[in-house]
Amino acid sequence: MVGAGISGLICARTLADRGYRVRVFDKARGAGGRMSTRRAGAWRFDHGAQYFTVRDPGFRARVAAWRGDGLVAPWMGRIAVLDDGTTAVKSDDTERLVAVPGMNALCRHLGRDLDVSYETRVASLERTADRWRLGSSDGRDLGDFDAGVVSAPAPQAAALLGRAAPELAARAGAVAMSPCWAVMAAFPEPPVLAFDGAFVRRSPLAWVARNASKAGRPEGEAWVLHGSPEWSESNLELEPDEAAAQLLEAFAEAAGGLGSVPVHLEGHRWRHALPHAPLAEPCLFDAGRRLAVCGDWCGGPRVEGAFLSGGAAAQRLLGSATE
User: Fold this and answer.
1) 62-71, long-range: CB < 8 A, 24+ apart
2) DSSP 3-state assignment of 253?
3) What is the pLDDT of residues 133-186, one digit of tens each?
């Protein structure tokens, strides 16, 4: 299993619960993918996925169980739209949910007793006889496996699958994904703002949120800012400090001032954040090679889409095991 985001881990969790031995590899230091939570001293930032919604009945049932276990709670924050200097409260009946105490809590829960190797970048995937052999970017042999799952952003999946499964690589490679610059800003005093989260129009920004307004987060003025896809694409190669400074300025302009200077300011570049046109299939699968590919670029974006994609990949592998 390549990737310890929610799609990879729900796939791994499903297979492990059915008695299969699963090993997961991820290049990051911990679980989460774009559901990660960043620490900076006492501050906490959900710098990727901000919240999630529920539409699918199967996902709704799993979320209900998570809510019962205290892993998920509604986000009761005030949501607004910032547009050219005006602030309008967003009145809708959308239930926005967050993982507790950080967005990475769900992935940590799913991977709690799995065999996961972090800080391990899988660089090669080769078919040897009837098995898959994985190699790391530093030249290590990661082992041979009966089946494989690639859960990574579409461009990364395409690169890894290029020689091993060219048909699947071509499908993944056809899905373009927009980048997103994320900014983590902590203020010594609360900005005088009439919202906890806001969609931003006609700005380098697309979204801003006060992290402490979400259930289970530490107190304090920790804010996450997301650049728009267009601005992030145009400024992809900026240094993180410069991207953070420019988006902070855009936040001050959109909000009509912030009142204080951040005591912590950090930029993070998500190179592959949002699929332009997700594939219609919930996952890709090669039954002959026993290879599945999943992610939020299959079936539909958002946390829910990633969850459903990973579950579909698991079911395809389980089905092939009984054929």
Assistant:
1) 62/307, 63/97, 66/99, 66/106, 66/109, 67/97, 70/100, 71/99, 71/100, 71/105, 71/106, 71/109
2) helix
3) 999 999 999 999 999 999 999 999 999 999 999 999 999 999 999 999 999 999
CB environment 191-230: b (16+ within 10 A), e (fewer): bebebbbbbbeebbbbbbbbbbbbbebeebbbbbbbbbbe
Within 111-218, where are the H helices?
154-161, 166-173
Tell me the DSSP string of 161-175. Answer: HTTT-HHHHHHHHT-
**Structure-derived torsion over alpha carbons of residues 311, 313, 314, 319, reported in degrees to the nearest 10:** 120
Decide: 153 and 295 in contact? Cβ < 8 Å: yes
Tokens 């619960």 locate to: 17
What is this structure's pTM? 0.95
Instruction: Kindly state the helix (H) or strand (E) to which residue 48 belongs, with its residue range.
Output: none
182 within 8 A of 224, measured Cβ to Cβ = yes
Helix (H) or strand (E) segment spanning residue 304? helix 302-322
End-to-end CA distance of the chain: 21
